[in-house]
Write a structure and sequence with these properties.
The chain is an alpha/beta fold. The chain contains 14 helices and 14 strands. Strand 6 and strand 7 form a beta hairpin. Helix 9 runs parallel beside helix 14. The structure holds pyridoxal-5'-phosphate.
């Protein structure tokens, strides 16, 4: 196995040990296309965990978001309200249908969509709200769903980072019209590339199956519910093959222990950075009391006057691979071209440049975490990272 030497990598994919066993079973079964036995096990797990009537594996969270955009029957010029502080797929999935992303600012505490600013951005063209659960911490879904209900809008949760997190006791991904999970290698539970669409409206489950199977009712045919399958609607191939599902099944079975291990590391970082917070050099993530989270990410927000990029390169030079996160979509070339903002986004503009994500993965040792924070502390207490302006 490849090793990371004496550096602390930002991420290191965790494997449970059963992945190859299930892949070997798949090999022995001789069934590699999608929707076989391992896919069914994963679907059952996702339905059990979310309580949703429908859960469908996709080849990515991006694909799940694209499916949601198709299912919403968006027309060119329709608008979808979302944060600018997110991954490109939140916007691209809707842009592919000709819709316009409307970027709204984030809350300074959780960095999630600021629910108090959504209503001002609604126009007659608005069709949906797409909140993102940043770092696996829930957006204020009760407030968002209430706004959506008042205005007749759909809600698509970008829950890419939110597997096994909850809001007011309910699983992320189960709270909107649709939820989208990611099993990308950088997430908590992985299959290399992979994702799932959670369908929370029972009347949309069959339609979602059709969109995922090239616009055909092949899923019903495989269950023996119809005697032939045919073209029913617009769709594409959004399903992963069985090898991916076999790998994922091993991971889903360990989802609770993966979450617990990550939470222990997250809590340790929180304690180790208390002094730096007390010294006014940074602030730590905020998890609202009504949310449980999955420790997808431990980020810090540096105090003003500290040069974030100097901190990142200082850490890298000392063998600690920490990273920044999103370049806000509203100020990126495609965002300027394809989206619009509803007024200025001062919190997004300010905080994205203050943020650093620390290494966090299953298997990260206490000694490595202490080294990360000591290295960070040395840098922050030295004059070398003061901003020059
Ligand atoms: C990772 C991520 C995605 C994309 O997930 P893929 O499975 O790689 O398509 C989308 N949105 C957010 C917020 C993410 O973190």
């Amino acid at each position: 196995m490849q090793q990371y030497g004496d550096k602390v990598p930002f991420n290191w994919p965790y494997m449970t040990g059963r992945e190859l066993h299930y892949i070997a079973q798949c090999h022995a079964n001789g069934r590699f296309a999608g929707d076989g036995a391992f896919t069914r096990l994963c679907h059952q797990w996702l339905r059990d965990r979310t309580g949703a009537p429908g859960a469908l594996l996709t080849h990515s969270c991006t694909a799940a978001l694209e499916m949601a955009a198709i299912l919403l029957d968006l027309q060119p010029g329709d608008e979808v309200i979302m944060p600018s502080f997110t991954f490109v797929s939140t916007a691209n999935a809707f842009v592919l249908r000709g819709a316009v992303p409307v970027f709204v600012d984030i809350r300074p505490d959780t960095l999630n969509l600021d629910e108090t600013q959504i209503e001002a951005a609604i126009t007659p063209r608005t069709k949906a709200i797409a909140p993102v659960h940043y770092a696996g911490v829930g957006a204020d879904m009760d407030a968002i769903n209430a706004i959506a209900a008042r205005h007749g809008l759909a809600v698509v949760e970008d829950a890419a980072q939110g597997v096994a997190s909850s809001y007011k006791g309910r699983p992320l991904g189960s709270l909107g019209t649709y939820g989208a999970f990611s099993f990308h290698e950088t997430k908590n539970v992985i299959s290399g590339e992979g994702g799932a669409l959670i369908v929370n409206d029972p009347s949309k489950v069959l339609e979602a199956e059709i969109v995922r199977e090239k616009g055909t009712d092949r899923s019903r045919f495989l269950r023996g519910e119809v005697d032939k399958y045919t073209w029913r609607s617009v769709g594409s191939s959004f399903l992963p093959g069985e090898l991916i599902a076999a790998f994922l099944w091993a991971q889903l079975q360990e989802a609770d222990s993966i979450t617990a291990t990550r939470l222990a590391a997250w809590d340790r970082y929180y304690a180790l950075t208390a002094r730096l917070k007390g010294d006014g050099l940074l602030r730590r993530p905020v998890v609202p009391a009504d949310c449980t989270h999955n420790a997808h990410m431990f980020y810090i927000l540096l105090a003003d006057g500290i040069d974030r990029n100097a901190v990142l390169s200082g850490l890298a030079a000392r063998g600690v691979n920490a990273v920044f996160h999103y370049v806000p979509l509203h100020s990126s070339p495609a965002g300027l071209d394809l989206g619009r903002t509803d007024g200025p986004l001062p919190v997004t503009d300010h905080l994205h440049g203050r943020l650093i994500r620390l290494p966090l993965w299953c298997g990260l040792s206490e000694a490595q975490q202490e080294r990360v924070v000591e290295t960070l502390s040395d840098l922050l207490h030295s004059g070398a990272v003061r901003a020059s302006d």
